[in-house]
């Protein structure tokens, strides 16, 4: 059984609603796309569940797709945090994995560098700051961000290499919960659609 302290030490993750590029599989980091109408509808479905909870802090990536998701989910005053931006894909921005693999067979963000983009070590460093901030909070932390960055954040919460995020599939407009069980970081829920 978890202790009351373990239950308070939770990090809630929300992936932003659908965009045209998340729908097509194009890698989107710095391109600041709006959500589709379907993405906005999906973001609204998050509000009833999240409204029932108290959060010590609510953070969001500064990208409009994450900020708008936070707003539609009932958190218009979420604090922008640059550490929550998507993994920078550099020269691969806007490309799909199959397009990249035409010139780099077997490419994956988890195992290969992206020319002009962030390294796994750089992503890990900034997400470690998010983990530290969440663990220092007196209560639950809610973050709104992106597919790869949230998967990497889960890996860092679990104290494993950022590349282990490859094991966590994450859909748009979903909620995931990380916590602690008897002092060990754990995944409590993953990829839940309300």
UniProtKB/TrEMBL annotation:
Q: Where does substrate bind?
A: 65
Enumerate the InterPro entries for this protein. Answer: His_Pase_superF_clade-1, His_PPase_superfam, PGM_Phosphatase
Q: Name one Pfam family in it.
A: His_Phos_1
Q: Name one GO molecular function term.
A: protein histidine phosphatase activity
GO biological process terms, alphabetically, are: regulation of phosphorelay signal transduction system
Q: Supply the PANTHER family for this chain.
A: BROAD-SPECIFICITY PHOSPHATASE YOR283W-RELATED, SEDOHEPTULOSE 1,7-BISPHOSPHATASE
Under which name does UniProt file this protein? Histidine phosphatase family protein
């Amino acid at each position: 059984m978890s202790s009351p302290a373990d239950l308070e030490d939770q990090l809630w993750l929300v992936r932003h609603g659908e965009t045209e590029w998340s729908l097509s599989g194009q890698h989107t980091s710095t391109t600041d796309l709006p959500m589709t109408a379907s993405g906005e509808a999906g973001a609204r479905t998050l509000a009833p569940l999240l409204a029932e909870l108290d959060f010590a802090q609510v953070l969001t990536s500064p990208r409009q797709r994450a900020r708008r998701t936070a707003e539609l989910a009932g958190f218009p005053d979420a604090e922008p945090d640059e550490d929550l931006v998507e993994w920078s894909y550099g020269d691969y921005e806007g490309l799909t994995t199959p397009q990249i693999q035409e010139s780099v067979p077997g490419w994956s963000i988890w195992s290969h560098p992206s020319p002009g983009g962030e390294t796994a070590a750089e992503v890990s460093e900034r997400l470690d700051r998010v983990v530290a901030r969440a663990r220092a909070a007196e209560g639950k932390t809610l973050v709104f961000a992106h597919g790869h960055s949230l998967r990497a954040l889960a890996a860092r919460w679990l104290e494993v290499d950022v590349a282990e995020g490859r094991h966590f599939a994450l859909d748009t407009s979903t909620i995931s919960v990380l916590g602690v069980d008897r002092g060990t970081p754990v995944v409590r829920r993953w990829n839940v659609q309300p």
